[in-house]
Please model this.
Amino acid sequence: MSGTSGRVLVVDDSEVIRQLIRVNLELEGFQVVTAADGAECLEVVRRVKPDVVTLDVVMPRLDGLRTAARLRAAPATSRLPIAIVSACTPADLDRGESVGVDGYLGKPFDPADLVALVRRLMALRDAGGSGGPGGFAYGFGESAGQFRSRRTDLP
Model:
């Protein structure tokens, strides 16, 4: 492992998925913090100030898309790179795009795609991008073909 590459907040109601994502990202040098739903995510974001957030869509208390909308609405997190990591519908993708989600990875996913997505979102953060509607920056996995990326400000 080659030092810490950044802090990632992984939000998923499945403990197994959280652990799977954690292990794969930690093996690549990322520091990983987890939350079990969107409400916990909003609490953890304030405390740990992650560089990237990954969100499942279907979760108790506060789902991933409403969580993303709240993160975008808050000045402190409005430019925080956010990816949906979920088996979601085209309608969910449209909603994610409309609230400013930056990337999508469909479940099931290849761990290499997960790492690539997080690295690209870290680069987006470093370039000062993110933070609003305008198309997904990145899509990976079996559902990536459902994207319509209109972003032109990406490295």
Remarks:
- The longest strand covers residues 7-11.
- Confidence is low (pLDDT under 50) at residues 131-135, 142-155.
- The beta strands are 7-11, 31-35, 52-55, 82-86, 103-106, 138-140.
- Residues 111-126 form the longest helix (16 residues).
